[in-house]
Design goal:
By secondary structure, the protein is an all-alpha fold. Among the domains are: about 100 residues; about 220 residues, no CATH class. Helix content is about 70%, strand content about 0%. It has a two-stranded antiparallel ribbon with strand order 1-2. Helix 3 crosses helix 10, helix 13 runs antiparallel to helix 14 and helix 20 packs antiparallel against helix 21. It is globular and about 70 Å long. The two termini are about 30 Å apart. This is O-antigen ligase domain-containing protein. Keywords: Membrane, Transmembrane, Transmembrane helix.
Length: about 525
C-alpha cells in the first residue's frame, strides 16, 4: 500500500474553520456511504459483500487515508441501523450475522493495509512510532496463536467471535496512530456531528419506543435476536432460576431505572434504549466516550445531554467513566496534573474494589465469573484458546448460576473481560494488559510535556475502561468501548509524533537531538 492521497505534508499551522468543516463533511458522508454500500452488498450475497466491502475500504484507505478513523467509528455506531432495514428480507441467522459483520471486514481490511504501510521508509523515519508498531505486531501474532488454539480446542465459530473482539482494539490503535502520524486528522467536527446524531437518536427512541423502531424494522431486528435466545433456551433458563416470565418484546426492553432493584419502589420502569447500534451497553460506552472526548475539547452541552440517556440505559461502567471525566475536567489545572492523574487511578481502584466487595457478598454474576477466571488461570497459566468461556461463547449456554453462587465461582469464566482473557490467553494476556498500561503511561507523559487535554482523555479512558473490564466483558470486547477509546488515543499520539517530526525537520541539525 502506498497511502499517498492528496494531503499536504504535516505542519503545525491550524487550518481554517471552513476547511475543517468541509473535510469533516467529506469524511462523515464518505463513511456513511461505505457502510451503507457494504451492508447492501452483503444483503445481495455474502461472498459478494466480502469482496465489495474489501474493495471499497481499499479505495478509501488509499484515496482518503485521513478519513479511515471516521469510517471505523461510523461502522461501529451506525452499521446496525442499516442492517435493520434489511431484516425482513434476511432469510436466516447466518446471513443476518454476515450483515452485522460488515464493520469487521472494513476494520480488518484497513488494518491489513496500514499494517503493510508500517514498513514504508517514511514510517521508519518516525522513531517514536517504531516501538508501538512492533508491540502491536507482537500482540497480533499472540492473538492469532490463541485463535488457532481455540479452533483446535473448542468451536471454530466461538474462536472467530473472540478473535474479532480481542484483535479489534489493537487494529483500531494501529490504524489510528499510523494514519495520524502520516496525515493531519481533525476529528472535532466529525465527533460532534456523530455524537449529536447518537444523542438525538437516543431521545427519539426513548420517547416513541417501539413506534419509532418500527419505522425502519428495528423491532424486527430485536425480535430476531430474541428468537435466537428462545431457541437456545435462555428464557426457559431464566424462568427456572429467577421466575421471570418472558411475555413479549416490551419485557426485554423494559428495566428498572439505572438497571438496579434499588429504585423499584421509587421510580417507574424505563424503556432501555439500544441506540443506532442496537446494543444498550455498547451504545452507553459510545455516548460516554464521545462526551468525555468533547469535554476535554471544551464542549459541555452534548455531554450534559448524554448523561440522562446513560442513566436510563443503566450501564454503571460507562456512567462511571463519564462522571470521572466530568470531575477531572472541573478539577484539573496544569499545576496539579500529577494529583489529577493519581486521583483517577484512586477512583478506579476504589470503584473496582467496592464492586467486587459488594458482588462477593450478594452472589453477583460478574464476581463469580471473575473468580472462575482467576481459578482456571492458576490451574492452567498457558491458557485455553480464544472462544472458550465468555458470554459470547456457546460454552456458557449451560452455565448454572445457582450452582455458581453455591460454590462461589462459575464453572467457566464469564461476565468479566479480565477473567475471560486470563482463561483464554493465560500468561500472554499480561502482554495485552501491559500494552494498555504502557499506553496510559505514554498519555501521562505527553500530558505533562504538552498540556494537551487529548492525552488527559486518553489516560482517563484507558484507566476507567480497564477498571470496568474487571467485572464487565463489554469494556474490552465491545467495539464501542476500549476499541473506540484506543482509536482516539492513537490519533492523539500519532498527531503529536507527526508534529514533532515536522519540528525536527525545520530545526538546524545541531538542535534536533534536544527536541
Amino acid at each position: 500500500m502506498s497511502i499517498t492521497g492528496t494531503y499536504t505534508p504535516a505542519g503545525l499551522s491550524a487550518r481554517a474553520p471552513d476547511a475543517s468543516s468541509a473535510e469533516a463533511l467529506l469524511h462523515v458522508s464518505m463513511a456513511l456511504i461505505v457502510v451503507a454500500l457494504g451492508v447492501s452488498a452483503f444483503a445481495v450475497w455474502t461472498p459478494f459483500g466480502i469482496v465489495a466491502t474489501f474493495i471499497l475500504t481499499l479505495i478509501v484507505s488509499n484515496a482518503v487515508p485521513a478519513g479511515i478513523p471516521v469510517v471505523i467509528i461510523c461502522a461501529f455506531l451506525y452499521q446496525n441501523l442499516m442492517v435493520a432495514w434489511y431484516t425482513p428480507y434476511i432469510p436466516d441467522n447466518d446471513t443476518f450475522d454476515a450483515l452485522r459483520g460488515t464493520n469487521f471486514i472494513i476494520l480488518m481490511t484497513a488494518f491489513c493495509i496500514f499494517l503493510a504501510a508500517s514498513f514504508q521508509h517514511r514510517v521508519r523515519a518516525l522513531p517514536e512510532l517504531r516501538a508501538w508498531l512492533l508491540l502491536s505486531i507482537v500482540l497480533c501474532g499472540t492473538i492469532c496463536f490463541y485463535f488457532a488454539l481455540g479452533v483446535v480446542h473448542g468451536g471454530p465459530k466461538d474462536a472467530v467471535v473472540y478473535f474479532r473482539n480481542t484483535i479489534t482494539p489493537l487494529a483500531c490503535f494501529h490504524i489510528a496512530v499510523l494514519a495520524a502520524s502520516l496525515y493531519p486528522i481533525d476529528l472535532r467536527k466529525s465527533m460532534l456531528w456523530l455524537g449529536t446524531g447518537a444523542v438525538i437518536y437516543g431521545y427519539v427512541e426513548l420517547t416513541f419506543t417501539m413506534n419509532f423502531l418500527g419505522l425502519f424494522h428495528g423491532d424486527l431486528y430485536i425480535e430476531r435476536n430474541i428468537a435466537r435466545q428462545i431457541e437456545t433456551g435462555v428464557w426457559e433458563k431464566a424462568l427456572k432460576e429467577t421466575g421471570f416470565v418472558f411475555r413479549g418484546l416490551e419485557d426485554v426492553m423494559t428495566t428498572t431505572f439505572f438497571n438496579t432493584p434499588f429504585f423499584n419502589d421509587i421510580l417507574p420502569s424505563v424503556f432501555r434504549i439500544g441506540g443506532p447500534n442496537f446494543h444498550s451497553i455498547s451504545y452507553a460506552y459510545a455516548l460516554s466516550i464521545i462526551s468525555a472526548w468533547l469535554l476535554f475539547r471544551g464542549r459541555w452541552l452534548l455531554p450534559i445531554a448524554a448523561l440522562p440517556l446513560l442513566l436510563v440505559i443503566g450501564s454503571k461502567g460507562a456512567t462511571f467513566m463519564l462522571l470521572v471525566a466530568l470531575c477531572v475536567r472541573l478539577f484539573h489545572s496544569p499545576s496539579r496534573t500529577g494529583l489529577t492523574l493519581a486521583g483517577v487511578v484512586a477512583l478506579a481502584v476504589v470503584w473496582t474494589t467496592a464492586a467486587i466487595a459488594y458482588g462477593a457478598t450478594h452472589g453477583d454474576y460478574h464476581v463469580l465469573g471473575l473468580a472462575a477466571g482467576i481459578r482456571d488461570f492458576l490451574a492452567n497459566p498457558l491458557g485455553q484458546g480464544l472462544g472458550l468461556g465468555g458470554n459470547l461463547s456457546s460454552t456458557s449456554i449451560n452455565l448454572s448460576w445457582s450452582t455458581a453462587q453455591a460454590e462461589g465461582a462459575a464453572s467457566i469464566p464469564v461476565e468479566s473481560a479480565v477473567g475471560v482473557m486470563l482463561y483464554q490467553m493465560g500468561i500472554c494476556s499480561l502482554v495485552f494488559f501491559g500494552f494498555l498500561a504502557a499506553l496510559a503511561v505514554a498519555a501521562r507523559r505527553q500530558l505533562i510535556e504538552t498540556g494537551d487535554l487529548n492525552f488527559l482523555f486518553g489516560f482517563v479512558g484507558i484507566v476507567t475502561i480497564s477498571a470496568n473490564a474487571v467485572l464487565q466483558e463489554e469494556a474490552f470486547y465491545s467495539p464501542l468501548a476500549l476499541s473506540f477509546c484506543l482509536l482516539l488515543v492513537g490519533v492523539s499520539l500519532g498527531t503529536r509524533w507527526r508534529e514533532m517530526a515536522a519540528v525536527r525537520a525545520r530545526l538546524p541539525e545541531q538542535f534536533q537531538e534536544k527536541v
